[in-house]
Amino acid sequence: MKNFSFFRHQWHLTLLSALLLFVFLIPLLWMVSTALKSSSEIFSYPPKLISLSPDWTIWSQILTDPQISRFFVNSMVVSFGTTFTTLCLSIPCAYGLAHLSIKGKTLILGVSLSTLVFPAIMIATPLYIVFGKLGMLNTYPALILADTAISLPFAIVMLRPSFRSVPKELAEAAQIDGCGRWRAFWFIILPLVVPGILTVGVFTFLAGWGDLLMSLTLTTEDAMMPVTAGLFNYIGNNVSQWNRVMALATLQSIPPLLLFLVAQRYVVSGLTEAAVKH
Questions:
Q1: CB pairs under 8 A, 24+ apart, for 240-246?
Q2: How many CA atoms lie within 13 A of 254 on its CB side?
Q3: pLDDT at 25 over 70
Q4: Rounded to whole angstroms, how far apart are CA atoms 189 and 166?
Q5: Through-space distance between the first and last CA atoms of the chain, rounded to whole angstroms
Q6: Fewest beta carbons within 10 Å, which of 113, 114, 157, 197?
Q7: Burial of 140 by CB count in 10 Å (0-12 exposed, 13-18 middle, 19+ buried)?
Q8: Where are the domains of the chain?
Q9: Of the candidates 162, 125, 129, 142, which has an alpha carbon nearest to the alpha carbon of residue 85?
C-alpha cells in the first residue's frame, strides 16, 4: 500500500518520464521500422510507422556485403584499441593525481579539465598534418591515437575521484607488510576502482565507435573507414534507398546498445562515485 500511495502521489512525474522516454524513442523506432520497409512503403502517404509486410532482402544484402563487414571490423579495432590505450594512460595518471605528491599536479588537472571545453575539430587539422608527414594516414594507429587524444582528459577527470575514494592507508599498510608500491597498486587499489574503470571504458568505447570527425579526416580509403565514415559515404551513394541506410544505421547501433545494457550497473555506480567524490 505504501508503494501504491507513492506512485499515486508521483503520477505526474511518472507520466512525464514516460512521455520523455517515448519522445526519445521515436527516432529509434522510426529507424528500425524504415529498415524493414520496402521502397514503395517508405515514400507512401500517409506514412506508416510499422510495415505489415517487412522486407528482409535489404538485411540479407547488407549482412553479406564484404565492404560493410570491413567497416565493422575497422570500428571494432579502433574502439577496442582506443579503450585499451586510454585506460593504460589514464589509470596511472589518475592514481598519481589522487595519491602521489607530484609537482604541478593542480596544473595538470586544470589542463585536463580545460581541454574538455574545446571541440575536437580544433585538433583535427593538426593531427592530419602530423600523421600525413609520418605516413600514418589510413592506418589504425592514427585513428586510435586521435581518439585517445580526445578521450584521455575525460578519462583522467573521471578516474581521479575513484582513486581518491580509496584510503591511502590501504596501500601504506600493504607496503609495511612487504608489498611494493606496484604490487600494492595492482592488487589492493585497482580492484577497488573497477566500477570507475568500467565506466571510463564504456564511454571511451562508445566515443571511439561513434567518432565521425577523425574517421573522415584521417581516412580516405574505403578499406580503412570505420562504420561511421562508411555510413556517411553510404548515405551519399544510396540517398534514394533509405531502407538500406536505416538498416546499416540499425546495425551500427546494436553493439553500443548491448555494451551499455551489459555494463549499465557499473556505469551508474561509477558516475555516482565520480559525482560525489572530489
A1: 241/39, 242/34, 242/42, 243/34, 243/35, 243/36, 243/37, 243/38, 243/39, 243/42, 243/55, 243/58, 244/58, 244/61, 244/62, 246/31, 246/32, 246/34, 246/35
A2: 8
A3: yes
A4: 7
A5: 40
A6: 114
A7: middle
A8: 55-276
A9: 142
Residue pLDDT, tens place only, 141-172? 999 999 999 999 989 988 888 888 888 777 77
Cell of 183: 604490487
3-class SS letters over 72-108? HHHHHHHHHHHHHHHHHHHHHHHHHHHHCCCCCHHHH
Question: Can you give the pLDDT at residue 135?
Answer: 92
* Three-state SS at 127: helix
pTM, 2 dp: 0.83
